[in-house]
Amino acid sequence: RGHVLGHKIGYPHFEDAPDNAWGDASKHFINTELAFGIFFCIEVVLKVVGLGKQFVNDLWNWFDTALVISWITENLGAKVPLDTTLLRLVRLARLLRMVRIARKIQGLDSLV
User: Does the pLDDT value for residue 42 go beyond 80?
Assistant: First the structure.
């Protein structure tokens, strides 16, 4: 919205039309989503192979599997009946929580 307004009023450095402002960014977003989807698929497969029957005991593994299955069906063209954006945000929150825990563990190393 800001770029559209800047272009309308002739603000400096906003000469490009708003539609062209991002250029090929949409292609990069699609490629990035594809790469992360593939990484998450590999992660789930490695967890299944590594944990074996214990894989089903963790609720997060079920969540990750549901997320990967919804991503696969979405990319195959089928409509997923729920908003996968919320699921992705929960997965991101989980990842950030793990990063925070890792930092706390690193802070404890100085005590040893």
Answer: yes
